[in-house]
């Protein structure tokens, strides 16, 4: 018989094993080793006390990995991953896990729950809608290779060590999703590379890059410096010092200038997700 519990006493190695089994037949390849799972959970502020597992004969067979942050007095929980192993599907386990954990989140005065679901995963989307989630925005992901670009002599690209987050965030047009938010970046900054572009000693653009996953977490240019080769200089620097292959995930489709830049590079929009929210 299935039973539900929070994940406070469940080791990350067991979570990793169940995660990989649950995503073994996923439409997008997604397998994490122990270290990668640790990094993911650290970045996203994993909260086992707000997470839930489904157990069959004392084995973890399903999970919702919730992460927690309080910002400006709003308490939010983010679903960093939901999965059920193939042999246990068809029993409405995801709905059962939400039935178990939502009263506890309400009791803890959580204001909002956020998740992302593949746009083409209609059954999962319907399950979340039954719980009460509503779609708030569409997120795009791109994959490709960085082509070499020529850069002008009046700009310099350098590593950025002393980060003024307020300055960098002033370059944004759209708020990033939870995985790419500045708090997630700060949590694993030791594993990331931060590059900045300077023109006449003024910082006019930056990018934050993970060389292990070949992922750009953030890239932005000040409003007055856009369409002047700043973003090209940043990705060119990544190409020269790290990898030609690159990916960037979960970019708000309303950020048209950024998406247009990716498409001009010939990068392919392979995956789209829907961000959904539930107000408690």
Throw out a few tags for this protein.
Aminopeptidase, eight-stranded mixed β-sheet, single chain, 2 domains, 280 residues, alpha+beta, elongated, 8 helices, 12 strands, 28% helix
Give a brief description.
The chain is α+β, with helices and mostly antiparallel strands.
CATH H-level name of the largest domain... which superfamily? Gcn5-related N-acetyltransferase (GNAT)
| Percent helix | 25-40%
Extract low-pLDDT stretches: none
Q: Helix/strand/pairing class, anyone?
A: alpha+beta
Please state the overall shape, judged from the principal axes of the Cα atoms: elongated
Radius of gyration: 20 Å
Count of individual helical segments? 8
Annotate the secondary structure layout.
Blueprint: E1 2-6, H1 12-22, H2 34-44, E2 52-56, E3 59-71, E4 74-84, H3 93-107, E5 112-118, H4 122-131, E6 134-145, E7 155-159, H5 165-169, H6 182-187, E8 193-199, E9 202-210, E10 215-221, H7 230-241, E11 245-252, H8 256-264, E12 268-279
Parallel strand pairs: 4-5
Antiparallel strand pairs: 1-2, 2-3, 3-4, 5-12, 6-11, 6-12, 7-8, 8-9, 9-10
Helix pairs in contact: 3-4
Describe the structure.
The strands form two sheets. The chain has an eight-stranded mixed sheet. The mean pLDDT is 94. The longest helix has 15 residues, at 93-107. The radius of gyration is 20 Å and the shape is elongated. Helices cover 28% and strands 36% of the residues. The protein is of the alpha+beta class and 280 residues long. The chain folds into two domains: 2-110, 3-Layer(aba) Sandwich (Aminopeptidase); 142-272, Aminopeptidase (3-Layer(aba) Sandwich). The protein is built from eight helices and twelve strands.
């Amino acid at each position: 018989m299935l039973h539900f519990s929070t994940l406070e006493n469940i080791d990350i190695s067991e979570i990793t094993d169940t995660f990989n089994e649950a995503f073994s037949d996923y439409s997008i390849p997604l397998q994490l080793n122990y270290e990668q799972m640790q990094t993911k959970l650290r970045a996203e502020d994993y909260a086992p006390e707000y997470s839930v597992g489904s157990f069959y004969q004392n084995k973890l067979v399903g999970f919702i990995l919730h992460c927690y942050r309080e910002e400006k007095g709003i308490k939010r929980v983010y679903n960093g991953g939901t999965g059920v192993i193939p042999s246990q599907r068809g029993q409405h386990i995801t709905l059962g896990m939400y039935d178990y954990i939502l009263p506890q989140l309400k009791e803890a005065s959580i204001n909002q729950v956020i998740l992302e679901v593949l746009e083409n995963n209609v059954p999962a989307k319907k399950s979340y809608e039954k719980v009460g989630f509503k779609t708030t925005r569409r997120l795009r992901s791109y994959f490709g290779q960085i082509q070499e670009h020529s850069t002008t002599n009046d700009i310099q690209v350098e590593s950025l060590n002393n980060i003024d987050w307020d300055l960098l965030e002033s370059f944004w047009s759209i708020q990033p999703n939870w995985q790419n938010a500045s708090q997630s970046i700060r949590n694993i900054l030791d594993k990331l590379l931060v590059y900045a572009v300077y023109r006449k000693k003024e910082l006019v653009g930056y990018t934050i890059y993970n060389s292990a996953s070949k992922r750009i977490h953030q890239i932005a240019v000040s409003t007055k410096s856009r369409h002047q080769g700043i973003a090209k200089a940043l990705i060119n620097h990544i190409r020269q010092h790290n990898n030609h292959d690159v990916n960037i995930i979960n970019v708000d489709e309303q950020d048209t200038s950024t998406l247009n830049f990716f498409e001009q590079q010939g990068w392919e929009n392979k995956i789209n997700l829907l961000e959904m929210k539930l107000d408690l």
